[in-house]
Amino acid sequence: MNICVFLSASDLDERYTSAARELGRLIAGRGHTLVWGASESGLMKVLADAVDDAGGRLIGISVEFLADRARALQAPNELAIAPDLAERKATLLMRSDAVVVMVGGSGTLDEATDVLELRKHGLYSKPVVVLNTDGFYDGLKQQFVRMDEEGFLPIPLDQFCTFVEQPADALAVIEQAGV
C-alpha cells in the first residue's frame, strides 16, 4: 500500500520524533510505501529516514518553491515536483491508498482539512487516520465530535476519520480497511 503521511517539516520534541520513527519503521516493515512531502528537514526527514533505514520505498512529492529542500541526501525511489501547493496535495492523494495525519502546523492542518473535505463529499474514499500523539489533536477531535453531534457532518464521524494514539494503531486501521 502507498501510505501518505502529512506532518511537519519542523524539528520537534522527542515525543513527536519517536512517533515518526516508529511509524516509518512500521510502514517499511509491513511492506508499504511512504508517500510524503519530500522535505529533508524536521519530522518529514525523521519519518523518511526511518522508512529508508528499514529498507522501505519512498515516493516524494515536493513543490517548486521548496524543491531545493527536497530529499537530496538519500534520493527517494520517486520524486515529483508540483508547480504549486494545490497540485502537490492532489498528487499526494492520487498516489496514496490511505492518509495518516501526524503533528504539524498550518500546512499540515491545511492538508488534513482538504482531504477531509474531499472525504465529506465522497471524493476521497480511502482511510484517513489522525495520529493523535501526546493528545496533540484533542481539540480537533473535540470539534469534530461537536460537528457530528450538531449535524454538520453528512457522514458519521467514525466513517469520516479515525483518531488513534499510537503509530501501530494507525497502520492497523488502514490494513483492516483492506485497501
Low-confidence stretches: none
Structural domain tally: 1
Tally of DSSP helical segments: 7
CATH class equals: Alpha Beta
Determine the strand fraction and express it as a percent band.
Answer: 15-25%
Helix content: 40-55%
- The string of secondary-structure elements, in order, is EHEHEEHEHEHHEH
Mean pLDDT metric: 91
Under CATH, the topology can be stated as: Rossmann fold
CA-atom Rg in angstroms: 15 Å
* Strand order within the widest beta sheet: 4-3-2-1-5-6-7
Structural class of the helices, strands and pairings?
alpha/beta
Give the second-level CATH assignment, the architecture. 3-Layer(aba) Sandwich
Largest sheet: 7 strands, parallel
Shape category: globular
- How far is the N terminus from the C terminus? 7 Å
Tell me the number of strands: 7
Provide an overview of this structure.
By secondary structure, the protein is an alpha/beta fold. The protein has a single domain (2-174), classed as Rossmann fold (3-Layer(aba) Sandwich). The protein is built from 7 helices and 7 strands, in the order E-H-E-H-E-E-H-E-H-E-H-H-E-H. It has helices at residues 14-29, 42-53, 85-94, 106-120, 138-149, 157-160, 167-176, and strands at residues 2-6, 33-36, 57-63, 78-82, 98-101, 128-131, 162-164. Strands 4-3-2-1-5-6-7 form a 7-stranded parallel β-sheet, sandwiched between helices. Helix 4 links the parallel strand 5 (98-101) and strand 6 (128-131). Helix 1 runs parallel beside helix 2. The longest helix is centred in the N-terminal third of the chain and has 16 residues, at 14-29. The protein is globular, with a radius of gyration of 15 Å. The model has no long low-confidence stretch (mean pLDDT 91).
